[in-house]
Design goal:
Blueprint lengths: L3 H10 L29 E8 L11 H9 L1 H7 L4 E6 L6 E6 L4 E5 L5 H13 L20 H4 L17
InterPro entries: Ribosomal_mL43, Ribosomal_mL43/mS25/NADH_DH, Thioredoxin-like_sf
Pfam families: L51_S25_CI-B8
GO molecular function, one term: structural constituent of ribosome
Length: about 170
C-alpha cells in the first residue's frame, strides 16, 4: 500500500496529467497569514519624540538622547518590522508613540527616565499587543468548608431560627 504522497508523485509523473495534478510545492503544508509558524507583529510604527537638551544643561530628554545615540540602532536591527521615526520637538517633554495593527495608539511619557528605562519601555511597546499591561489570573483556588471565606457565607434566612434579626 502506498502513501498519499507517493500516489501524488506517481500521478504527477504520468504523461498528460502533469498540469492537472497538484504541483510539487504543494505537497507540504505551510502556514498562511499568521497561522502556523508565521510571525505577525502587532506594532507597526514607533515614534520617539524628544527635546534635545542644550550642551551642559540637564533637561528631561537626556535619557532619551542617550538611548537614541547608543541603543536605538541595535533595537532597529532586532526589529526590522517596526517603522521607527525620530522626531525632535522643541519645548515638549519626551515621549514614545506606538501605533499597532489594530489602529490603537499608545503614548508613553519618558521625561526624566534613564537610557536603560527608555530601552525597557521601547521593548515593552514592541513586544506587547496594545501597549497595556495585563494581569492574567489563572483562576481562583477552590475553597474548602473550613476556609475563612467559606465560613462567611450565611445560610438561608429563617425568621424562626434567626438569632440576628434586624429590628428598628
Amino acid at each position: 500500500m502506498s502513501t498519499p504522497r507517493e500516489l501524488i508523485r506517481k500521478l504527477q509523473n504520468a504523461p498528460g496529467l502533469a498540469k492537472r495534478i497538484l504541483p510539487v510545492k504543494d505537497l507540504t503544508s505551510r502556514g498562511h497569514n499568521g497561522a502556523g509558524l508565521t510571525f505577525v507583529p502587532h506594532i507597526t510604527k514607533l515614534v520617539l519624540r524628544y527635546d534635545h537638551p542644550r550642551l551642559g544643561a540637564g533637561g528631561s530628554s537626556t535619557g532619551m538622547v542617550a538611548f537614541l545615540t547608543s541603543q536605538l540602532p541595535a533595537v532597529a536591527r532586532a526589529r526590522p518590522y517596526v517603522e521607527i521615526c525620530v522626531q525632535p520637538r522643541n519645548a515638549v517633554p519626551p515621549h514614545l508613540l506606538a501605533t499597532y495593527a489594530s489602529g490603537k495608539k499608545t503614548l508613553v511619557p519618558c521625561a526624566g527616565l534613564s537610557a536603560k528605562e527608555v530601552a525597557a519601555k521601547v521593548a515593552f511597546l514592541c513586544d506587547s499587543m496594545d501597549g497595556e499591561e495585563r494581569n492574567v489570573k489563572s483562576g481562583r483556588p477552590v475553597l474548602t468548608a473550613g476556609h475563612q471565606l467559606a465560613e462567611r457565607v450565611d445560610p438561608v434566612w429563617d425568621p424562626f431560627t434567626a438569632e440576628h434579626t434586624f429590628r428598628p
